[in-house]
Amino acid sequence: MNGTSIIGRLASAVFATNLSNPIVVHTATCLLASLSAFFFWPFARNNAAAIAFCSIFGVLGGSMLALPASGVAYLIPDDRQSHAGQWTGMMWSGVSVFALVGPLIAAALKKRFGVDAVRYWTGASMLATTVLFAWSMYSKRQEDKTSENSLPTTTEVKSGEQTPSSMESGYTGTRA
Fold it and tell me: What was the pLDDT predicted at 176?
């Protein structure tokens, strides 16, 4: 699984760069990982099937490990990009709690209910993450629409104020 994660890390970077939106790639990867846990894991009953499942899940897992920092950078407003390291650190601080307790929950589920409970836990956790990614994508789009609508039009600009286009051309809004 760790060897195939290299494929996922590299492929997700290519897709995220070409789509210019790592959240879309991360959401799709998480959804595919959830579906593979629900629907492919049950067929991993022999060595060949287990290797195939672990290879697929490894590619998806590698993608999920490679994309968080670029996803955080995508979600940060443009005027706060200088704080990307701080935001990424806060994201990993939150993730660390789940990374710490997740294996304990999985072990308790396996002990009490069997391995299928771990499969359901894994799939449900990834599906919940997919929903959160989709929500963050929607929120970002709404924020972008709001900020686009709040830019002043040429009729709203007062005499003497500089607009972004007038600053580029050197026009100051006053007559010489």
Answer: 43
What band does 148 get if pLDDT is binned at 50, 70 and 90? confident
Assess whether pLDDT exceeds 80 at residue 106: yes
Query: % helix / strand / coil in the chain, to the nearest 5?
Result: 80, 0, 20
Q: Work out whether the CA dihedral 45, 50, 53, 58 comes out positive or negative.
A: positive
Estimate the crossing angle of helix 47-66 against helix 2-19, to 10 degrees. Answer: 40
Of 58-72, 117-131, 144-158, least confident by mean pLDDT is 144-158
Q: What is the largest CA-CA distance in the chain?
A: 83
Under a CB-based contact definition with an 8 Å cutoff, are residues 23 and 136 in contact? Answer: yes
Residue 169 parent element (H or E): helix 164-169
pTM over 0.85: no
DSSP state of 157: S
State the distance between the two ends of the chain, measured CA to CA, in whole angstroms: 70
Give whole-number Cα distances, 86 to 23, 64, 82, 153, in Å: 19, 20, 9, 34
